[in-house]
Amino acid sequence: MIAKTTHIENTRNLLDILPVVDIGEPEDIFIALENARCPKADLTIKEGDHVKMYQVIGMRHGPFFDQPIHATVSGTFVGFEKHLHRSGKMVNFIHIKNDFKEEEDETVVHNRTKEEIASLTREDFMNIAKECASVGLGGSSFPTYIKFDTKGREIKTILINGVECEPYLTADKRMMMEKPEEVIEGIKLLQQAFGTKDARLCIKNKYKDIIAIYDEFLRAMPDSGITVCPVGNFYPQGWEIAMIKSATGIDVPSGHLPSEYGIVDFNVSTVVGLLQNVKYNKPVIERFVSVTGDAIKYPSNFSIRVGTPMKYILEKCGGYVHPEKKKVFILGGPMMGASIPSDDCICTKTVTSIIVLDHDESKEENCIRCGSCVLSCPVHLKPVQIMNAVKAMDKDTIKLLEPLKCIECGLCTYSCTSKIQVTDYVRRAKLFAKM
Ligand code: SF4
Ligand code: SF4
C-alpha cells in the first residue's frame, strides 16, 4: 500500500551536536548588487573608496520597496564581479577587499538605551527593520518590516518558528541552543511591538534538549507570556500554515494572511537578527550556516560573514571526499532549497545551509500511477496530473489543477516511487499558470 510521506530521513545527527564555529573572514567579500525582489540598485560609493563595516553603500530598488545595501567588512571597494546568487542566477556583486580592521560606521552604530527601546512603537520597529534591511533569515528573504504592518488588525498570538523541518538544516537549531537569551530578548521586543502577551516558540516535539533549555529559562519568568509550543515532527511542519495549525488549531486558508486571524510569525534567527537591529542599530552581517552532504569531508556548523564565497567555506570543511566526482550543490534544504550549478556562489544573509552531494546516477523510471505524490502533497494538489498536463503543454488543464497553490516543499519528488523530479514539473506548471 502506498503511504503518505511526511517523514524525511534525518540526516543531521552529527551536525545537531556540533557547535557553531566562527569561520573567520575571507580577504574578498562580495555583496549582491541586486536580488530577486529588488532587481535594480544605485551605489553611493565609487571604485577605490574606503568603506566601513555596517556602512550603507547603496540602495536596491524593487517594485514594492527599496532595500539599503550594507558593507559587511571594512576595506576598499575594488569593483564588480559576477558570481552565482542563491537564486541560481549570475548577478553582479560588489567586491570589497577586506582590511581586517573591523572599522565600524559611526552613522549606523548607535547602541539604544533600555529607556529608548522601551519607548519604541510598532512603527519605530518597522522603520528600524527597514533601515537595517532585515529579511526572513529562515531562507524566505521576506522583508521583516512588512510583517509589522498588519493594516490595523489586532494581533493576539505571536509564533516564533524554530521548527526547521527539512533534513540537513541545523542553523536555527544551533541558534536556539547557543543563544537562548537573545531569542527570549528578541521575543520580548515582538511582544512590545504588537502589544501582545501570547508568544509561542514552536519547536519540534522530539527536540527535548532545546525544549528543556527554554523551559528552564521561562520557569524563572512565569508572567512573561512566552511559552514553548512543541509541534509535530513531520514534514512540512515548518511551513507557516502547518505550524499555525499545530500551534493554534487555526487553519489559515490559501490566499489569506495569518494577521487576518490575529497571528504573526517570525523565524527564530530573524528574531535574533531583529534584536541586533533594535539594540545596536546594526544590520545582520553574520549568520549561522550548516555545511553538509555526503560529498563534504568534514560537515560543520559555521558562523560566516555575509558575502563570503562558498568556496572559502568548503575549504574550511576540508574540501570534497571525492573531488573527481560530479556534484550536486543545494542552498537551503534538500526539499525546498535551490539547486545551483557550481560552487562559484556567494553566501548572502538568507543562505541557511550548503549541501553538496555526489551525483546520484540512478535513473528516472516511468510513472506507475501509484498516487504516492498525490497522497503526500500537503496542499492537496495532484502533482502527477500536473506533470502530465505540463508534458502535454495543456495550459487549460494546468490552470484547472491550481499549481500556484504549490509551496514547493518537494514531497512529490521525495515520495515518487519512480524517482521522477515531479516538483520540477509543478514549478514549470506555475510559470504556465501565470501566463
Ligand atoms: S505539488 Fe508542491 S506542495 Fe504538493 S508535494 Fe509537490 S512540491 Fe509539495
Ligand atoms: S509521479 Fe511518481 S509518485 Fe506520482 S503517481 Fe507517478 S510514480 Fe507515483
Ligand set: iron/sulfur cluster
> How many strands, which pairing sense, and closed or not: the largest β-sheet?
6 strands, mixed
Silhouette:
globular
List how many beta strands DSSP finds.
Answer: 19
Q: What spatial order of strands do you see in the largest sheet?
A: 1-14-13-19-16-17
Helix % is 25-40%
> Total number of helical segments?
15
Average pLDDT score? 91
Low-pLDDT residue spans? none
Decide which structural class fits the backbone: alpha/beta
Total count of domains? 3
Give Rg in angstroms.
22 Å
Euclidean distance between termini CA atoms: 38 Å
In terms of DSSP E residues, the strand content is 15-25%
Q: Can you tell me about this structure?
A:
With about 425 residues, the chain is an alpha/beta fold. The chain folds into 3 domains: about 15-105 and about 285-360, no CATH class; about 115-280, NADH-ubiquinone oxidoreductase 51kDa subunit (Rossmann fold), CATH 3.40.50; about 370-435, no CATH class. The chain has helices at about 15, 115-120, 120-130, 145-150, 170-180, 180-195, 210-220, 240-250, 270-280, 310-315, 370-375, 385-390, 395-400, 410-415, 420-435, and strands at about 20, 30, 40-45, 50, 55-60, 65-70, 75-85, 90-100, 155-160, 200-205, 225-230, 265, 285-290, 300-305, 310, 325-330, 340, 345, 355-360. Helix 12 crosses helix 15. The longest helix is centred in the middle third of the chain and has 15 residues, at about 180-195. It starts with 12 loop residues before the first helix and ends with a helix. Bound molecules: iron/sulfur cluster (SF4) (2 copies). The site of one iron/sulfur cluster has 15 residues, from helix 14 and helix 15.
